[in-house]
Amino acid sequence: MIRLAKRALITSCPLRPQRSPLPTNGIWRGISRSWAEGVRQNRYGAGMAQAHDGEKTMKELKYADVGINLTDGTYQGFYNHHSNPSHPPDLPSVISRASSVGVRKFMVTGSDLEQSLQAIDLAKQYPGQCYATVGVHPCSAMQFKKAKDGGEKLLEELEKVAREGMGEGRVVAFGEFGLDFDRLGHCGREVQETWFGRQLEVAVKLQLPLFLHSRAAHTSFLSILHPYLDHLPRRGLVHSFTGTISEMLELIDLGFHIGINGCSLKTEENLDVVKAVPLERLQLETDGPWCEIRPSHAGMKILKGLDEVGRGEEGERWKKVKKEKWEEGAMIKGRNEPCEIGKVAKIVAGVKGVSVEAVVEAAWKNSVGMFGLGVEEE
Q1: How far apart are CA 113 and CA 3, in angstroms?
Q2: What is the separation of C-alpha 30 from the centre of its chain, rounded to a whole number of angstroms?
Q3: Can you give 352-369 as a three-state secondary structure string?
Q4: What count of other Cβ atoms lies within 10 Å of the Cβ of residue 268?
Q5: Which residues share a beta bridge with 236?
Q6: Are 220 and 249 in contact (CB under 8 A)?
Q7: In this structure, how many other beta carbons lie within 10 angstroms of the beta carbon of residue 276?
Q8: pLDDT tens for each residue of 214-253
């Protein structure tokens, strides 16, 4: 099996900082096995919905966070490539908080071979709750050129890992892969385009739904994708969408779904796009630990004066502290978590003028319809 010495920058939202690497796989697996038991008791929490017109309901909401980087080092206390952790591993608390507001399913993103293996590890530790994707992010596509045994061997290994995970019911999508022309400094355009096409060849073999990334590259993205569409009937999700209305509608016409997170809610133009996404093609995600909703974002105005989904009527439900001031049960400032998915739903509902319940139920139906996520087995 190929082992890569270093992981390149992995990104899903504009201006994402470098991801914090975990220790070696052996250490990761040892840590991950110690997490499981503490979280199993909190697998299925209940979220509270508040209708857009202000009428509260007691209906339980079910969320699927279909874009969450739970393998990132920040959830183990590692930040900015420092070798020493800033705080103890707190992934059990992260999952527990999300479960308490109704997040029942986590689709853990694989953005290179190593991270895909780690995502599958999590799916093994949390069966029925966590599921994995397998792929190589466009900003990490240089790994194909730098792989010790060559890019073709790495591609073969990626396919092998995905097939094994599919057979175990743990891998539910192929990706994250695509094009990102916002950050060509991490991987040049030609390399991205070459290995986007090569990964699409693997996707056709696997017949998994796709988990796609397209940033400032729409024309090239569709040009490369089009020849494969007749062989990819399950289509997929273009996640963390930040493109234009016309780009979104073109993807919708081709049969794709649109993933919405905090990066999709930054500007008034972003909100216009979200308003135009048909509910039957919309899915919710957080892309944590990135893409948090910030006070400067246009979407934040939707939240002001309204109760937040899954939160108390007065402010935040959980205390937030700096990573250096970590304490048990607190969230980390600047580190997004899946428990924040209710904020995304709230903004989408406000923009569309519909109830949060309508948004969440549609997104759940769309996500399990596309990716399965074990729902048919429950």
Answers
A1: 8
A2: 24
A3: HCCCHHHHHHHHHHHHHH
A4: 9
A5: 210
A6: no
A7: 15
A8: 999 999 999 999 999 999 999 999 999 999 999 999 999 9
Cα distances (Å, whole numbers) of residue 266 to 80, 205, 212, 240, 242: 24, 37, 20, 12, 9
Cis peptide, bond prior to residue 176, ω within 30 of zero: yes
Tokens of 37: 């038991």
pLDDT at 368 over 70: yes
Q: What are the pLDDT digits (tens) for 163-210?
A: 999 999 999 999 999 999 999 999 999 999 999 999 999 999 999 999
- 178 dihedral zone (left: phi>0; alpha: psi -120 to 50; beta): left
Measured CA distances, 277 to 33, 183, 256, 283, 372 (Å): 40, 26, 11, 10, 22
Residues 308-348 have pLDDT tens digits of 444 433 347 899 999 999 999 999 999 999 999 999 999 99
Tokens of 338: 């899946």
**Rounded Cα gap, residues 28 and 57, in angstroms:** 41
Q: Give yes or no for a contact between 33 and 125, defined as CB atoms under 8 angstroms apart.
A: yes
Query: Encoding tokens for residue 333?
Result: 């400032």
Q: Which residue has the tokens 């008791």?
A: 41
Q: Which two tokens stand for residue 201?
A: 């060849």
Distance CA(75)–CA(80), nearest Å, equals 12
Q: In this predicted model, what pLDDT tens digit does every residue of 5-46 receive, in sequence order?
A: 333 333 334 344 345 555 444 434 444 443 333 333 333 233
Chain CA centroid to CA 360, Å: 16
- Which token pair is 185? 């400094």
> What does the block give as tokens for 132?
């994995």
What's the pLDDT at 377?
Answer: 59
- 8 A C-beta contact, residue 187 and residue 142: yes
Contacts of 256 (CB under 8 A, 6+ apart): 212, 235, 236, 237, 238, 281
What local confidence, expressed as pLDDT, does residue 266 receive? 98
Output phi, psi for 130, to 5 deg. Answer: -105, 140
